[in-house]
Write a structure and sequence with these properties.
Elements (H helix, E strand, L loop, with lengths): L1 H60 L7
Length: 68
């Protein structure tokens, strides 16, 4: 009986270590996804809001040929 308890304690300690490693890995992935979202917003979404404000000023400063 004590042998089985020792074996179960060893298995429990091993599983506990694996769960801790899995938690750390999932936290890293969560941070990667968060920063991916931030970069996506900064690179794609933010210019879509800024472009309509800058486009009229740019077009008014560009001299178009008379034929157009």
């Amino acid at each position: 009986m004590p042998e089985q308890l020792n074996k179960m304690e060893a298995m429990l300690a091993e599983l506990s270590g694996k769960v801790d490693a899995l938690y750390e890995s999932s936290e890293k992935m969560r941070k990667y996804f968060l920063w991916t979202l931030v970069v996506t917003l900064a690179v794609i979404i933010l210019p879509l809001f800024i472009l309509p404000m800058l486009l009229p000023a740019f077009l008014s400063s560009v001299a178009l040929p008379a034929g157009l």
